[in-house]
Write a structure and sequence with these properties.
Blueprint: H1 4-13, H2 16-27, H3 32-81
Helix pairs in contact: 2-3
Length: 102
């Protein structure tokens, strides 16, 4: 049986449970943007923890090499959280046209 610190670490490195829970909540009525933000934040946390594990287990040199490649993943996550004028559907929002008085 794993000790408590290892169980805690496993929780930080496992995004699947959070993803499945948020998808289930979305299907039950939670807004999609909340689910996307939660999943993205879980993935970012997961990435940071893995970079830390690489640095601790493999030393500074490995930590820097792994960290550099993980930065791409973190910037992608940041881009996913940025406002999207098209929304989650990918379609432009409908704008009601104003009719001119005759």
């Amino acid at each position: 049986m794993a000790s408590a610190p290892f169980r805690s670490l496993r929780g930080l490195t496992d995004v699947d449970a959070i993803t499945l829970s948020l998808i289930d909540l979305h299907r039950s009525g939670m807004e999609g943007s909340v689910a996307v933000t939660g999943i993205t934040l879980a993935a970012i946390t997961n990435t940071l923890v893995k970079g830390g594990i690489a640095a601790v287990a493999g030393g500074r040199a490995l930590g820097l090499r792994v960290g550099a490649s993980l930065l791409v993943v973190l910037f992608s996550g940041g881009a996913a959280l940025s406002p999207n004028p098209r929304g989650l559907s990918g379609r432009a929002p409908r704008v009601a046209s104003k009719s001119k008085p005759s």
